[in-house]
Amino acid sequence: MLSHPPLRRRSGFQVNAVGLAAGAIVLFWAIVALVGPDLAPHPPGEIVDFDFYGPVSARLWMGSDYLGRDIFSRILMGARYTVGISLAAVCIACFSGIVLGMTAAVIGGWFDTLLSRFLDALSSIPSKLFGLVVVAAVGSSIPVLVLVLAVIYTPGSYRFARALAVNSNTMDYVAVARARGEGTGYLITQEILPNIAGPVLADLGLRFVFIVLLLSGLSFLGLGVQPPYADWGSLVRENLGGLPFAAPAVIFPCLAIASLTISVNLLIDNLPVRIRDRSD
Amino acid sequence: MTGQITLLVLGRLGVALITLVIVSFVVFGATEMLPGDVAQILLGQAATPEAVAGLREAMHLNEPALLRYAHWLFGLAQGHLGTSYANHMPIAGLIGGRLMNTLQLAAVTTVIAVPTALFLGITAAMYQGTLYDRVVTTTIVAVISVPEFMIATMAVLVFAVWLKWLPALSFANDVASFGELLRIFAMPVITLCCVISAQMIRMTRAAVIDALKMPYVEMALLKGASRSRIVLHHALPNAIGPIVNAMALSLSYLLGGVIIVETIFNYPGIAKLMVDAVATRDLPLIQTCAMIFCFGYLTLITAADIIAILSNPRLRR
Amino acid sequence: MPLVDVRDLKVEARTDAGRRIEIIRGVSFTVAEGEITALIGESGSGKTTIALTLMGHARSGCTITGGTVELAGRDLVAMPESGRQQLRGTEVAYIPQSAAAAFNPAQRLIDQVVEVARIHRLMPMAAARAKAVELFRALALPEPETIGNRYPHQVSGGQLQRLAAAMALIGGPRLVIFDEPTTALDVTTQIEVLRAFKTVMKQGSMGGVYVSHDLAVVAQIADRIVVLKGGEVQEEGPTEAILHCARHPYTRELLAAFEPLRSDAPAGAANRPPRPVVEVKDLVAGYGPLGKDGLPFSVALRKVSCRLERGRNLGVVGESGSGKSTLARVIAGLLPPASGRVQLDGRELAASARGRSKDELRRMQIVFQLADTALNPARSVADIVGRPLTFYHGRKGRAREARVDELLDMVRLPRALRHRLPGELSGGQKQRVNLARALAAEPAVVLCDEITSALDSVVAAAVIELLKELQRELDLSYIFISHDLSTVQAICDEVMVMYKGEVVENLTADQLPDGARHAYSKLLFASVPKLDTGWLDSVPATVA
């Protein structure tokens, strides 16, 4: 392609303020998940305050927890679990959902019917209870959590990708490729995937939010990340005793979850718009 | 064409039934995976190996899993729910009261949340792009994005800690007056209403806005119809299918999804019963609860599908 | 005072990028009381936008930025929305392009027809219903008493279009706006609908604005014609004057595109003995599962046979539902037939594309009607045209790039377009890319499925011209499927007329259009509008 330098086109991206702010917060948490523990002012497991449920102070920015540990450090540490586990789970769920969904749409017939029936049945089990039973059965560990969350959210991703792929599959350009003699693999990767990539990525973001919420819920019930480690849901659970006197130890982990999930949602709703004016 | 409708409805019911069988298989399989020998757990560590073997025999635990699945499914179909492993009480008795509690909570929430959601969803679509619409949609995004335990803790903070209007925890044991009842229900109901109406408002608004993009809506505008007439007479009747579907999805949450709310407010419902059953490895109880949840979900979804079929004018005569 | 007085109207539209573009640039015209004025132009000329401003309406993204639109002396632009609401339906009414989409599927027809009377409280409902039935009768609708009790999906497209007219006329408007009301209809239906419109408009002596791209249709119904291009008036005048002594070059171009181009004498074909490239025998095909009788649930083709000789072109004409597109899909191997066979160069082809060899697939290429859906919106022009080169000929890298450039030259597209996505091309350019992709395979036969139907007449004429040139250069044979008889006439040597899945008549090009013997082909050819103001009245009503 070197012989043909790309033409200059009027193109660019339009970003709005809400999207920018949301993106910044998401980026912030991503960085915290990567390097957060190194920034923590106190070791997350160390008791640094004689008082428990201590107030916000210059030394303890977000107060102390039920044992007198520094909440700020524990939230920085928790980001790694909440973001990491959710990200791994959403990637597995969406990858398998998209691959299965597109294959079902292109092949159709019995394969499609059976797979759709089975995954529909799977999604009729309330997600929290499914997670609960399996985690209780196998015991909670990080790989188990990732897998369970992935399994729970695969049917939804499958259904979404399949619906898009079925739409795309009825288009004439797919018919042209079929008439040309192209194989299923080419149809899926070259003709269909590029056209559903945008919505599928947005769906990935939404599903990430659901997974963060479910993981926090499981941790809140004591079935998620196990002590001495703690994700944000576990932090809320540990410090629920402080609720009657509005301890910062309960409020800040809640705010951490909310800031991440709301930002992801807002980012998806305000994605940068690609500008491609037709210029004849 | 009424024959066609009947066929479609029967088809939906058939699909629901097949799904229920698949679900029962999954539920049975998942509970089978629970580790530990049930007989051993029931008799405790001190039991003799002979006693454990005897109990295994008595409970048919030595039979192949598929045969036990058939036994269980057959019993379930006839209404034999079995006895609890943990305290040897009939499951029907254990579940009965708890199910009633959950259904009560669900009923009260539905009565409040559905009309509110419909009103907010439709008016937000009607005044799309206005300040009102933006306030509604932003609030919804916020509510959808946070975990329910956070909404519950916020409700406790606001109503119990700061305003001191309501007790922080619900105990359904000592209901003396209507006022008392109200105070017990208030907190869980507020939380659940927030959680489920957010989804419903979002879907209702989206469905009405989709319908508003149709050419017949522009036609109505060009006939001189007012905005409210356009929305109520032209857009809404064509958005019933997706709206009912969203309602069913949200309401199904009130059966199995309420677990966190029941835990936080210490409300003796069926989801909490199931969590306790998982803790004690009470297989028959877990299986029955799971089947109740899935049955409820399928009933709601199937009902929504059937309503959508009946409301489709293209199938009318 | 004229009924409508539009002065220096300006409308702006916002692009995705937020750029503002003036799409109507100072248009002025008038419509007298009881007169029908036509707005003629191709897509993008702004004709529908202007028509909607006569109702005080601009679609979302568009705003009226200047000028006045006066209806009986009242300016619709300056008026508040509530004032416009009162005029809509009572003073000015609208007949949409697609009545099928403009009727609410959830309501009975009669309720929608009388809705104007209900909204504006014009008369008691019983009186409105009675008036509706009267209008149904005047518009020659079948069962006028009861047709209103049906739902929109239960009546045909032509009936819906007349019901939409009844819906517009119920409020007794002084001005009726027709927005391409017959474009979506088959020609035999179009003639009935036009006749009905003309009758009621004459009886009610109402003013009208008729938006269309079809000069021949407009010639039948309009008193005056306004020719639009790019949001500006090119020429304006009485119908006869525009048709016979157009002054503006653009108007002449429009008229020229309409002239049926005679197919050139089949070049060189006469010298060679006829040899069939494609031969189709007794095809039966359809959709849905096969029944006990071996027929599909819904049969689209019943025992269809035809043959295409090398270097010649076969036209397949018929109305929607005649099975002509299904025929193309079966020949291409996209829809395996229930029975019958397809031969290419004397050798039988497998029923499905999957079973055909690469070379068989290469020699027969299909080009679809809508370039919008036939080109993958996520791939660049170079990718789209280059894929068959790699797939069939194994060309990669520089060789492939060079060939793509040649192909773009061949379909008269600038090479610079190679990096564009289909969404950034115009309709005609897309169709040329569509064609280039088929040519990349170096085929012997090209199946053209309605490839000019979605194009403006001037652009379509150019594409037809291109097809002819390519045929001379590349020794191609076309199967040309179309509902538009004049384009088929322009390119085909033989024409096959289809009706409800069967071949009713085979004709040679020189027998067209008067040589038809079968009753249906006669009706079909007679229904094609002519550039002659007296044509509609001259066609005997028994034909329609």
From TrEMBL, chain A:
The cellular location(s) given in this protein's UniProt record come to: Cell membrane
Q: Where is the ABC transmembrane type-1 domain?
A: 79-268
* Source organism, top-level taxon: Bacteria
InterPro entries, alphabetized? BP-dependent_transpt_permease, MetI-like, MetI-like_sf
Record's keyword terms, sorted? Cell membrane, Membrane, Transmembrane, Transmembrane helix, Transport
Give membrane topology per the record.
Multi-pass membrane protein
Q: Please give the biological process terms from Gene Ontology that the record holds.
A: transmembrane transport
Q: Which CDD domains match?
A: TM_PBP2
Question: By its UniProt entry, which Pfam families does this protein fall under?
Answer: BPD_transp_1
**Membrane-spanning regions, if any?**
12-32, 81-110, 130-153, 204-225, 245-268
Q: Which GO terms describe its cellular component?
A: plasma membrane
What family is it from? Belongs to the binding-protein-dependent transport system permease family.
This chain belongs to the protein called Peptide/nickel transport system permease protein
Cite the source lineage.
Answer: Bacteria, Pseudomonadati, Pseudomonadota, Alphaproteobacteria, Rhodospirillales
From TrEMBL, chain B:
GO CC aspect terms? plasma membrane
Q: Which GO terms describe its biological process?
A: transmembrane transport
Q: Which UniProt keywords apply?
A: Cell membrane, Membrane, Transmembrane, Transmembrane helix, Transport
Query: What Pfam families does UniProt report for this protein, alphabetically?
Result: BPD_transp_1 (PF00528), BPD_transp_1_N (PF19300)
The species this protein belongs to is Tistlia consotensis USBA 355
What is the topology of this protein in the membrane according to its UniProt annotation? Multi-pass membrane protein
- State the protein's name: Peptide/nickel transport system permease protein
CDD domains noted in UniProt: TM_PBP2 (cd06261)
Domain called ABC transmembrane type-1: residue spans: 99-304
What PANTHER family is this protein classified in? DIPEPTIDE TRANSPORT SYSTEM PERMEASE PROTEIN DPPB-RELATED, PEPTIDE ABC TRANSPORTER PERMEASE PROTEIN
In the UniProt record, does the keyword Plastid occur?
A: no
Its lineage reads: Bacteria, Pseudomonadati, Pseudomonadota, Alphaproteobacteria, Rhodospirillales
Q: What is its main location?
A: membrane
- What PROSITE patterns does this protein map onto? ABC_TM1
Show the stretches that span the lipid bilayer. 7-28, 105-127, 139-162, 182-201, 243-265, 285-310
UniProtKB/TrEMBL annotation, chain C:
Principal location listed in the UniProt entry: membrane
Residue ranges annotated for the ABC transporter domain, each copy included: 6-255, 278-525
Question: What's an example of a GO molecular-function annotation for this chain?
Answer: ATP hydrolysis activity
What protein name does the entry list? Peptide/nickel transport system ATP-binding protein
Matches recorded under SUPFAM superfamilies:
P-loop containing nucleoside triphosphate hydrolases
Q: Which PANTHER family match?
A: D,D-DIPEPTIDE TRANSPORT ATP-BINDING PROTEIN DDPF-RELATED, TRANSPORT ATP-BINDING PROTEIN
Cleavable signal peptide: none
The record ties this protein, via InterPro entries, to: AAA+_ATPase, ABC_transp_ATP-bind, ABC_transporter-like_ATP-bd, ABC_transporter-like_CS, Oligopep_ABC_C, P-loop_NTPase
* The organism of origin for this protein: Tistlia consotensis USBA 355
Q: In the UniProt record, which is one GO cellular component term?
A: plasma membrane
The protein's location, in the record's own words, is: Cell inner membrane
Tell me the protein family, please.
Answer: Belongs to the ABC transporter superfamily.
**Per UniProt, what is the membrane topology?**
Peripheral membrane protein
Keywords for the protein's UniProt record, in alphabetical order: ATP-binding, Nucleotide-binding, Transport
From the UniProt record, give one GO term of the biological process aspect: transmembrane transport
